[in-house]
Amino acid sequence: MTKPNRLTTVVNTFQKLPRPIRTFALSKAMGRVIKYAGTSGLRYEKLTPTECIIVIPNRKKVRNHIGSVHAAAMGLLAETATGFMTGLTVPDNRIIVIKSMKLEYLKQASGDMKAIATFTDEQVEFIKNNCESAYHPCGTCKIGQKDDPSAVVENNCSVKGVSNLFLADSSIFPRITNGNLNAPSIMTGEKASDYILGKEQLSPSNLEPFYHPNWKDNQK
User: Fold this and answer.
1) Disulfide: which of 7, 25, 34, 143 matches 153 by Cβ 3.0-4.6 Å?
2) Where are the domains of the chain?
């Protein structure tokens, strides 16, 4: 049996509470973590890997000019329900990022709005087995000192054991960067070209880079 991910474990702690208290406590907790959802007053009635039921009350903060729930708030409701469905399913080493969203409004809404999202057991297993990490691909040919057995490239960007072969891209990064790969990849190319052209190098700097305390689980 697959071990529940951390989000499912947290949500399951609320299941021990009586239903009215459970809904209130779960909604408050999620509203603190997801600020926009909290501001909009989303009410989480059910959160499981196979079904999510979320309600947005028709109150002043989320109304449009004709007194019904605003279209943007409806989008939030739909995205939250489907997002939690996936978030409760994926392994902890993967992060959900929305790629696209399509909404169709069929008629004027009235009263509170409810979103119900469901997965079959087969769909749950598909997500668990096929969801891919959003980490930037890099570090397949680590740069390091000559005596580092895990390094493929020496600190002058030359490939170990091969003459006149240099690597100058993100593959030589020893760790995943805290941000986008573009800028450090350009810097790597500039540095490698200086080595290849025999230009004078800048003085070494021993500044300690920032490491996120949870870098193994978080991209940023």
Assistant:
1) 143
2) 6-130, 135-202
From residue 219, alpha-carbon distances to 96, 187, 211 in Å are 12, 21, 11
- Rounded CA-CA distance 14/185 in Å is 45
Reported as a single tens digit per residue, the pLDDT across 45-95 is 999 889 999 999 999 999 999 999 999 999 999 999 988 988 888 888 777
